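ENTRY TYPE: protein
CONTENTS: sequence, structure tokens:
***
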Amino acid sequence: MNILEVQNVYKSFKSLFSRILILKDISFSLNKNEIFGFLGPNGAGKTTTIKIIVGLLNPDKGIVKILNCSPKDENIRKRIGFLPEQPYFYEHLTGEEFLDYTAKLYDIPKKEKKERIKYLLEKVGLYKDRKKMIRTYSRGMLQRIGIANALIPDPEILILDEPLSGLDPIGRKEIKDLIYEQKKNGKGVFFSSHILPDVEEICDKIGIICDGKIIKIGSLNEILKEEVKGVLIVVRNLKIENINDLNLNFEKRGNEYILRVLPHEVEDVLKKLLSFENVKIISVKEELFSLEEIFLKITKNEKGIYTC
């Protein structure tokens, strides 16, 4: 079931003498039990898209539905958790007081509110710092309290803009686990991020936006397997003179050699290996591009230069 649908959305902004088109026919969807990673270089239109999704901006054309309703619907807003790229905090409050204030806005009952605040502070690693003023929090701590704040209403869908920004490796691991937990609990998560290895680790589906257009969308597995980087052939009993004959890049691990072969060369290399005396082929495995390599390749093809 689609819990978020964005269909043929356009958005422009007025400049001094004209209108600048920011989003150009953007379409995608998010299902329950799914994590969608939204990627793109700076200025590609990610934050504008997110603001339209949560109802902070209106599209010029197109349709946005959250849980089959308009983002402007007041009842829907209580079912959405949102973390903007640059969240605002009441710095004179403690972390615990800030979450308590948000919980009151959602009319969460007192007993449930207390338990939920404690649970979320523990989940984001701020329980011991709950009595500290937010103005004393580090960049990473602010990101953690922002994520806890987005989760206060126990939302059905999470919209997160750069949720892993400013976090150290431990913090990123904890927040990734928390995001994955939302998926396991039947929620949908839509987020933008510049940290591509983290996106590759947890996302089911990704969309890549460049210059206001979606240039790649699909399941992560499908996108990673669209193009093979090379083939790794692991062999034993290979002599150094045999390697010289093959003229390939290789790596030695113990008594094995790992040969890196271009896809179109695999058949010829295997024939040569089988012709060598006592050589044993252990495995033949495709080597795929990483998400980061695919992202850079796509954005370069679209723009002619690397844009991130």
